[in-house]
Amino acid sequence: MYIRESLKRVRVQMIIKVASESDYADLRHIYLESRRKSFHWANKEEMALEDFDKHTVDEHILLAEEDSRILGFASVYLPEDFIHHLFVHPDFAGKGVGGQLLKASIEKMNKPIKLKCVSENHKAMKFYENNGWKKVVEEGKSEERYWVMVYE
């Protein structure tokens, strides 16, 4: 007689936690890969792994992790209640990671919270608007226009 066993994959919950120095190597790669894939308006050749360190100085960094794999991160500048970066590894885009990071970031700050979103980044703009953010004003030079957005 043949007995068939059903094996279920245990689903580990995504967790949001504060990043540590040991996470930075993975975060650098996520930042680089995400920008190279989605920033069609930018010069991909000018992007480098070191950009993460330069662009997140003095920021509080949260990361999303599942099964010990980092899925994405948000960096916030707490003194100004400002979300500076929110990036999800391209393999996990559209799976709720960004929403969880956004929610956790909002919980760390006082309202109103601000961010800037590049005008050409239509996908991100829609994401923020769908999560309750409002466009306030468009600023910047013609090739580098961005929207200041607010969450109240």
Automatic annotation (TrEMBL):
It comes from the Bacteria. Keywords: Acyltransferase, Transferase. The keyword Transferase applies. SUPFAM superfamilies: Acyl-CoA N-acyltransferases (Nat). GO terms for molecular function: acyltransferase activity, transferring groups other than amino-acyl groups. Residues 14-152 form the N-acetyltransferase domain. Pfam families: Acetyltransf_1. This is GCN5 family acetyltransferase. It comes from Cohnella abietis.
